[in-house]
Amino acid sequence: MSFYLKRFFVNKSTSLVSGKKLKCPFCEKLYGYETNLRAHIRQRHQGIRVPCPFCSRTFTRNNTVRRHIAREHKAELNLKAFEQSNHSMLDSVPQ
Ligand SMILES: [Zn+2]
Ligand SMILES: [Zn+2]
């Protein structure tokens, strides 16, 4: 009795693992349930993407962009701030 029950559960779980999985159309992630896949797509591939002003990368959060800029574009950030302050100084100079 318990043998059959065990076998049933084993079969069920293996068919869940090797059976039809839903593949994300944007990346290689596999999901067993459509709701999980939808949540993943919303979080990873849709949502509001914040673009980095220095490169083509996009991020899901403002904090992530700031952290990315601080880490990867420190030089550019300083240069940009310098250029901007220079421009505003030039603009304010009367002709
Ligand atoms: Zn994906
Ligand atoms: Zn960047």
TrEMBL record:
Keyword Isomerase annotated: no
Tagged with keyword Cell membrane: no
UniProt cross-references to SMART domains, sorted A to Z: ZnF_C2H2
GO molecular function: zinc ion binding
Keywords: Metal-binding, Zinc, Zinc-finger
Pfam family, one: zf-C2H2
Domain C2H2-type: 22-50, 50-78
Protein's name according to its UniProt entry: C2H2-type domain-containing protein
Taxonomic placement: Eukaryota, Metazoa, Ecdysozoa, Arthropoda, Hexapoda
